[in-house]
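re the bet — no i am not wrong, look at it urself. input seq straight from the record:
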Amino acid sequence: MSRMPLPKSDGATPSGSPLLGPLLSSLLLVALGAIPGSLLRWLVDDLTVVNLLGAFVLGWLTAMAAARPRAWLLVGGVGFCGSLTSFSGWILELHTHIQGSGWWVALAGWFLELTGGLLMAALGMGLGRWMQRRWLPQMGNRPRR
């Protein structure tokens, strides 16, 4: 089976695809953050705790990202927080509560975790904004790359 030749590029990457270099760089950055995120999730082993922690960290990263390069969100947001938290696990947990404890207990758990996640994200964003006002002027606000 022969492979179809790739079109010639402007020399941006040796593979011939101008997008392959940035794509591989982005994938590597996401993987770099995913490893510690998944290890922390394995160590904590409590879905509510990791989801709330992930919401806080993601809120903080979002607030801090304005003065940081794009890699900041790829490593921390997509990689670390993405492998730390779990929407599908949360839904499965809710389904288990519905079957075992009934709709009202599941609905209360859903509401508490959802509002807790929003609160933690807001706290993380508040901390990030406070840190930017407090420390970035002293360190020199570096432009986003």
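see?? Residues 4-15 have pLDDT under 50 and may be disordered. told u. also Residues 30-139 form one domain. so pay up
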